[in-house]
């Protein structure tokens, strides 16, 4: 895979040595913080004690991963800024939305997972539906990270891809099992420093090879030949939005913002950090600061992708995610390439650990309590730990079948947008939202997404069946993903409308439950009810 794009680095042995040292540091963190874990909240929420210096890296580590790094560079190479609205721009919006509207409320609730909120607000049936969506999204995300890690290690060192994946999986099982979020948050802080340093070394070298920032902004180009620095749709003759125009162009543009910008707002992967924050103020500030930081960090690989296409790098369409490894191999001095590969692998490993723990939390805390409501904290801890290797095994299976990292990550947000976004938002901010409305909305969004997909797919198929795309073997792949994205926007809108209508029609047969904080105080009292 990719031998013609990136060759084994001359510093391969050094990379493997430092990756081995990094693994030892991770294991040390697990052992060091194992003494802090006495019950499930200690393992999965760090005892609700994450301060700002550790909360921000923990949030960012969820996103500075395969999609933000390799995927975004490749997408920018392909379509400039229009192609990366999905990531990094949309996640920045998501973090700011969570920080402003949701963080203080959710932290004040005292829940262990967002499933607890769904159970209390809409009943256990809705809670189970939410759990299913979250598990599918998170395990799919986790599988994508494992694919990226294996590819990076294999291409840069020649080390077996499957062996690298297995070693990383075993290490993160051990650390998550014994040290939980206490240990992982410390690993996240180390990784964040490494990845920022690595990117800041790479960017000026790439821009220097191109001829400077003046050349970058004056001549910046991309494979699709749309306006490189346009983030919004342009005139039809200039490319619309990634060469879609009219209704399809508008739907595609809205989906680019909505898939992760709105779809990941109710994500357990994100909101577990809210629940782990030291207090409401730290939760709110952590997400706002993370959003600002992610914008600047995420734009670096985007700039590198654009610069490398402009420079003349000719990658096969199915290998564009290899932009960053190619740069590290060909432009960086050996010591810098070692640092970058280790930091990139470290970021992915960190995301693997965090996501695995979150999946295990949902299975061990919520699924177990569904069958044993009177479970003690000690029993919950035991079940969460048991769920950690099971979750990782499921992700390994997915990793064998999916290799498109960026799209796999974005798909998880799209699934959530169509099914649980409306119940989550209205459950927070509308007193009349009830269980019948939430469940009807869930299935309306899911079914209509499928219906709209089959309506839109013939048009995306026609648009993508061009000679170069067909030769790259991507025509059907692009047509399917484009249709999935476009169809989620009308599906999400319909889900919202249905929930409002059904809730209003069933107020007497299904009286709404009040959303309260940990002290029993109602919190569904307006969108800007800030905590004191």
UniProtKB/TrEMBL annotation:
Zinc recorded as keyword: no
One GO MF term attached to the UniProt entry: transmembrane transporter activity
A cellular component annotation (GO) from this entry: plasma membrane
Keywords for the protein's UniProt record, in alphabetical order: Membrane, Transmembrane, Transmembrane helix, Transport
Primary localisation category: membrane
Pfam families per the UniProt record, alphabetical: SSF
Subcellular location(s) per record: Membrane
InterPro entries documented for this protein: Na/Glc_symporter_sf, Na/solute_symporter, Sodium:Solute_Symporter
Membrane topology: Multi-pass membrane protein
Keyword hit for Isomerase: no
Transmembrane regions: 12-31, 52-73, 85-106, 127-155, 161-182, 189-207, 241-265, 286-312, 332-363, 384-402, 408-430, 437-457, 483-504
Membership in a protein family: Belongs to the sodium:solute symporter (SSF) (TC 2.A.21) family.
Protein name, per record: Transporter, SSS family
Record organism: Anoxynatronum buryatiense
């Amino acid at each position: 895979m990719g031998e013609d794009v990136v060759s084994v680095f001359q510093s391969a042995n050094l990379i493997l040595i430092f990756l081995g040292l990094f693994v030892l540091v991770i294991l040390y963190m697990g052992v060091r913080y194992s003494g802090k874990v006495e019950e499930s909240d200690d393992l999965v929420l760090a005892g609700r004690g994450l301060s700002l210096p550790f909360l921000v890296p923990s949030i960012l580590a969820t996103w500075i991963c395969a999609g933000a790094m390799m995927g975004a560079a490749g997408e920018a190479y392909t379509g400039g800024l229009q192609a990366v609205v999905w990531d990094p721009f949309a996640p920045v919006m998501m973090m700011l939305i969570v920080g402003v509207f949701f963080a203080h409320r959710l932290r004040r609730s005292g829940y262990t997972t967002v499933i607890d909120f769904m159970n209390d607000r809409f009943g256990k049936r809705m809670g189970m539906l939410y759990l299913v969506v979250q598990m599918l999204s998170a395990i799919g995300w986790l599988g994508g990270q494992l694919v990226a890690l294996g590819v990076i290690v294999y291409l840069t060192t020649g080390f077996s891809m499957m062996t690298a994946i297995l070693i990383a999986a075993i290490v993160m099982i051990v650390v998550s099992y014994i040290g939980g979020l206490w240990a992982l948050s410390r690993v996240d802080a180390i990784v964040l420093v490494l990845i920022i340093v690595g990117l800041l070394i790479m960017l000026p070298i790439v821009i220097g090879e191109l001829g400077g920032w003046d050349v970058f902004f004056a001549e910046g180009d991309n494979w699709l030949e749309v306006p490189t620095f346009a983030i919004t749709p342009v005139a039809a003759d200039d490319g619309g939005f990634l060469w879609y125009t009219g209704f399809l162009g508008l739907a595609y543009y809205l989906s680019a913002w909505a898939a992760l910008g709105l779809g990941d707002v109710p994500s357990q992967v994100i909101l577990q950090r809210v629940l782990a924050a030291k207090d409401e103020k730290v939760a709110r500030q952590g997400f706002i600061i993370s959003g600002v930081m992610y914008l600047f960090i995420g734009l670096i690989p985007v700039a590198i992708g654009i610069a490398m296409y402009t420079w003349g790098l000719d990658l096969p369409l199915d290998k564009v995610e290899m932009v960053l490894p190619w740069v590290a191999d060909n432009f960086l001095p050996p010591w810098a390439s070692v640092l970058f590969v280790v930091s990139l692998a470290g970021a992915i490993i960190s995301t693997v650990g965090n996501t695995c723990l979150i999946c295990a939390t949902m299975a061990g805390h919520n699924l177990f309590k569904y069958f044993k409501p009177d479970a003690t904290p000690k029993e919950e801890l035991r079940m969460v730990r048991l769920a950690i290797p099971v979750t990782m095994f499921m992700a390994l299976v997915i990793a064998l079948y999916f290799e498109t990292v960026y799209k796999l990550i974005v798909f998880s947000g799209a699934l959530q947008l169509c099914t649980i976004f409306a119940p989550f938002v209205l459950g927070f901010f509308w007193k009349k939202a009830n269980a019948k409305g939430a469940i009807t909305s869930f299935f309306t969004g899911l079914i209509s997404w499928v219906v709209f997909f089959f309506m839109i797919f013939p048009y995306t198929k026609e648009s993508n069946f061009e000679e170069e795309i067909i030769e790259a073997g991507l025509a059907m792949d692009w047509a399917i993903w484009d249709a999935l994205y476009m169809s989620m926007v009308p599906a999400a809108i319909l889900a919202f409308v249905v929930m409002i209508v059904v809730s209003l029609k069933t107020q007497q047969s299904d009286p709404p439950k009040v959303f309260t904080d940990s002290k029993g105080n109602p919190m569904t009292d307006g969108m800007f009810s800030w905590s004191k």
